[in-house]
């Protein structure tokens, strides 16, 4: 197991962030029973979160990533008070979530991408009205917040549609609005862009950026999409097997993992492999595959794609181009390899 905070120098090392959200040695152990023979079942422990400590300052937007089963959702559930930690100390805005869950609920918003907090049979509008009453949101504030969400999340045409009839992407936008109607100071987003098309993803990200800039909302974001992190978070924490493995910048994580991003280039015609050299440093890209007019070029994930795109556009007959992020599992696997003796 790697040490915690393998992070990049300087940024976001888990120190120096005053603690609006504070975790100190937090643990969550589940007791499960599993089959051990035809009739016998034995008890066994799952350490979903295994002694995690970090602080998030007010107004920060932090990515919280890791492979499946790493302990991300369990952490978020403890931060909302849904689950009680088995050990350690946890505070959100000075509140112990599991002891004062209702008081905390007025100050936080939560979006679980895989599940909805909306009423399945009701149109969005009615779900929002119920929240208006539940959270006792002043009328004017409610209307302003709803208008803003409707505009930025494109909900106008969806307000009278029952939630069960919405697509996953539409439902997600509806859920994000629901989490924001009461002006939460902290927003937990668990896979908020899952199932969204490229345009909806861009809209949601833009909206979150504005929310953070204008209202200073603190955001903890769990995602499998590294582009979410790249565009929203200066700081990323990586969790694996319930432990904090890294706390720093995304570029730093790519450096530690020596990961690569991929340019997928569509040329006007079939051509020999693209070659981009730079004086002194040698090749800037590595051609991984050529299939007719399409070429796949790998480059270090910590480098900027913009100058490479500009060079390709200037030197080759370019039709189309996209950038693919490395997946989180691959980055983490390389992190382990890099740390192995
Ligand atoms: N209620 C529960 N009872 C028993 N085990 C659980 C429970 N909830 C989670 N776990 C286990 O705890 C571990 C962490 O799960 P968690 O859902 O927090 O992971 P995750 O990082 O959110 O994963 P994913 O990306 O797949 O959502 C997993 O091994 C999971 O099976």
Automatic annotation (TrEMBL):
GO terms for biological process: response to antibiotic. Residues 33-266 form the ABC transporter domain. InterPro entries: AAA+_ATPase (IPR003593), ABC_transporter-like_ATP-bd (IPR003439), ABC_transporter_ATP-binding (IPR050763), P-loop_NTPase (IPR027417). The keyword Transport applies. Its main location: membrane. One of its GO terms (cellular component) is plasma membrane. It comes from the Bacteria. Transmembrane segments: none annotated. It comes from Streptomyces arboris. This is ATP-binding cassette domain-containing protein. It is found in: Cell membrane. It is a peripheral membrane protein. Keywords: Antibiotic resistance, ATP-binding, Nucleotide-binding, Transport. PANTHER family: ABC TRANSPORTER ATP-BINDING PROTEIN, ABC-TRANSPORT PROTEIN, ATP-BINDING COMPONENT. One of its GO terms (molecular function) is ATP hydrolysis activity. The keyword ATP-binding applies.
């Amino acid at each position: 197991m790697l040490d915690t905070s393998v992070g990049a120098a300087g940024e976001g090392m888990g120190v120096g962030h005053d603690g609006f959200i504070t975790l100190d040695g937090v643990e969550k152990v589940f007791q499960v029973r599993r089959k051990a023979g035809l009739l016998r079942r034995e008890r066994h422990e799952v350490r979903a979160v295994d002694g995690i400590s970090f602080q998030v300052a007010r107004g920060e937007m932090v990515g919280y990533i890791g492979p499946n089963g790493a302990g991300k959702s369990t952490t978020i559930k403890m931060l909302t008070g849904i689950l009680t930690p088995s050990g350690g100390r946890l505070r959100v805005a000075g509140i112990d979530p599991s002891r004062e869950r209702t008081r905390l609920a007025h100050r936080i918003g939560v979006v679980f991408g895989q599940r909805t907090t909306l009423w399945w049979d009701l149109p969005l509008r009615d779900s929002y009205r119920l929240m208006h009453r539940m959270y006792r949101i002043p009328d004017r504030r409610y209307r302003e917040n709803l208008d803003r969400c409707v505009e930025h999340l494109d909900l106008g045409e969806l307000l009278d549609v029952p939630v069960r009839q919405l697509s996953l992407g539409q439902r997600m936008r509806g859920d994000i609005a629901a989490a924001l109607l009461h002006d939460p100071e902290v927003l937990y987003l668990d896979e908020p862009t899952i199932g969204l098309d490229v345009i909806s993803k861009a809209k949601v990200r833009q909206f979150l950026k504005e929310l953070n800039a204008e209202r200073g909302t603190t955001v903890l974001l769990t995602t499998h999409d590294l582009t979410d992190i790249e565009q929203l978070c200066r700081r990323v924490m990586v969790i694996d097997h319930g432990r904090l493995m890294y706390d720093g910048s995304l570029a730093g994580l790519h450096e530690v993992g020596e990961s690569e991003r991929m340019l997928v280039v569509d040329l006007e015609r079939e051509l020999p492999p693209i070659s981009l050299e730079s004086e002194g440093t040698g090749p800037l890209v590595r051609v991984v595959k050529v299939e007719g007019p399409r070429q796949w070029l790998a480059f270090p994930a910590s480098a900027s794609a913009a100058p490479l795109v500009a060079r390709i556009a200037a030197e080759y007959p370019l039709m189309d181009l996209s950038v693919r992020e490395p997946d989180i599992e691959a980055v983490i696997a390389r992190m382990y390899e890099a740390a192995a003796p």
